[in-house]
Amino acid sequence: MKIVVTATSFRADSTGPAPEQLRQFASQEGAELVFNPHGRPLSEDELIPLLKDGDGYIAGLDFVTKKVIDACNSLRVISRYGVGLDRVDLEAAKAKNIVVCNTPGANAQAAADLTMALMLCVARKIPLLDRKTREGRWVRSTGIELYGKTIGILGLGAVGKAVAKRAQGFSMRVLAYSPHINTYYAKENGIEAVDFDRVITNADVLCLHMPLTTETRNIISGEVMRRMKKGAILINTARGGLIDEQAANELLRSGHLGGLGLDTYETEPPKQSPLFELDTVVLTPHTGAHTDEATAAMAAMSVQNLIDVLSGKPCPYALT
What is the pTM of this model? Predict the structure, then answer.
């Protein structure tokens, strides 16, 4: 048996209960453990040599395409270290009877914290002021308050719900749209469940917490951004590809958008971008899930999912 682990936060020298559980399982089964040799998400051509004779796979943000899956001869499970599945070809996995599972909710609190951090950084221009202060420049800059503003949340899953609670702590009015929103949950928790157009046109701060699918790609297009309030802030800690970055750049420069906070990008890592030039933009390197607590939770769930499938047990988070 061979088990491949490519999640960049789960390394050969990782310590803690989940890595130890995986090592014990591998030892009991006489399995070879192979870890990511590059320390970054892997392309399909890098994955194929690792996975073609693998039985189990703990996947990070790698591109698990049909080409990769078709090259696998014995793979039984793809256990995502995280929630997003936009880089895994689910249909190809299903066709080869490969179980795909993920770790829903494991990083929700971490992602919600980063969402609020980006909101505050954009609203008060904190990175810019930090740089100027270090340079010895005593800059006076006027930001905006979050208190009493309206936040629009697209996607009321685990992360969206956690962001809503934090926003309410800032006395923000919370509007939310999700294709399958739980209206009972929204009502009981002081969230206004509204349609897409109302969220877009009423939000002072718009936060994205949706998966990347064919339907949601570029859901925040230039046309949608032009319908947002003048000076509104846009935050994306979900998936790159939800926002048309070129249109966002144009609308930031025109002053229609008041600010942008990104943790995810159309291309990762992002290459040279005109967004890098703007002081109204705050950027982080897809780090929403990178807290001690979240990485431990994702490791625990991804390892247990893998062991369940390889041991022939039901996996509660199986998606195929």
Answer: 0.86
